[in-house]
UniProtKB/TrEMBL annotation:
Residues 9-139 form the NAD(P)-binding domain. It holds the Pfam family NAD_binding_10. Transmembrane segments: none annotated. This is Uncharacterized protein YbjT (DUF2867 family). It comes from Amycolatopsis viridis. InterPro entries: ComplexI_NDUFA9_subunit, NAD(P)-bd_dom, NAD(P)-bd_dom_sf. The lineage of its organism: Bacteria, Bacillati, Actinomycetota, Actinomycetes, Pseudonocardiales. Gene3D superfamilies: NAD(P)-binding Rossmann-like Domain.
């Protein structure tokens, strides 16, 4: 029996795929979630909260690896990651694996700043660590378009390109890193194509069989400049599944 692996955020888009990838006979996979244990879950369930640290010590006790996929809206990820690091250190020296985003160091969004500070907390933790940065997930772009489905137009950030990646491919990479030796900063993971946001919106409309005018929204300041300069893109286009293929399954 290998040491247990804890997945924080194991109910989220990425975390639930990571947990699925890690599940194997003889391996305990734990999930930390604020939710109550679902009936019939194959995981060792720990109800807890990274903001208050409730349930955290029990979740990390004896874990050999922690894959940290939990994220809070806003800019709380630095504080919750520090809370996790402290609990992990009290528990021993588990390998801490963290998922981050390409460009967190170059685009000054509050959420990105918090993720960068979270990366720094992982690196300075004294624990064995791995950090993987990925580009935007297909799911994120899809949700950004789907949320506008009742509008007569589709708004999009003017002049942006994206390199969306399949969250299942990110999960596979993350699970592989979790099972390997601590890797430090792993090579970034990006989707197979860089496409103008208008192309992606058109692919979405075609998949949904809708016609809508596309309305560009200028994004001012350093954030807009950072995205227009492509600081969220990577030359490591190691993902395979395209947005079009994702849409074909999703719609
Ligand atoms: N989405 C993207 O395009 C993208 C791209 C690159 C990297 N990433 C990174 O990948 C990670 C996962 O993103 P995602 O889109 O999969 O997130 P998500 O679907 O929004 O899931 C968030 C997870 O965080 C957990 N969580 C939130 N607050 C918590 C708290 N206070 N205590 C404990 N757990 C808490 C939630 O669990 P419960 O609700 O069950 O408590 C949920 O499982 C994030 O770090 C994100 O920055 C995302």
């Amino acid at each position: 029996m290998s040491e247990p692996i804890l997945v924080t955020g194991g109910t989220g888009v990425l975390g639930r795929e990571v947990a699925r990838c890690l599940l194997a006979p003889g391996r305990e996979v734990r999930i930390l979630s604020r939710r109550a244990k679902p009936v019939g879950t194959p995981y060792a369930w720990h109800t807890g909260d990274l903001r208050t640290a409730d349930g955290l010590d029990a979740a990390v006790a004896g874990a050999g690896v922690i894959v940290h996929c939990a994220t809070t809206l806003g800019a709380k990820d630095a504080a919750t990651t520090r809370t996790l690091v402290e609990a992990a250190r009290r528990a021993g020296a588990p390998h801490l694996v963290y998922i981050s985003i390409v460009g967190v160091d170059r685009i000054p969004l509050p959420y990105y700043r918090a993720k960068l500070a979270a990366e720094e907390a992982v690196i300075a933790s004294g624990l064995p660590w791995t950090v993987l940065r990925a580009t935007q997930f297909h799911d994120l772009l899809f949700r950004g378009l789907e949320v506008q489905r009742r509008l007569p137009v589709v708004f999009h950030p003017a002049g942006f390109r994206f390199q969306p990646v399949d969250s299942r491919e990110v999960a596979q990479r993350l699970a592989g890193l979790a099972l390997g030796d601590p890797a430090g900063r792993a090579p970034d993971l990006g989707g197979p194509e860089v496409r103008d946001v208008t192309d992606l919106a058109r692919l979405y409309l075609r998949a949904r069989n809708r016609r809508r005018p596309l309305v560009p929204v200028p994004i001012p300041g350093a954030v807009g400049r950072g995205y227009r300069a492509g600081h969220h893109l990577t030359s490591n286009a190691t993902g395979h599944r395209t947005f079009e293929q994702f849409l074909a399954d999703r719609t």
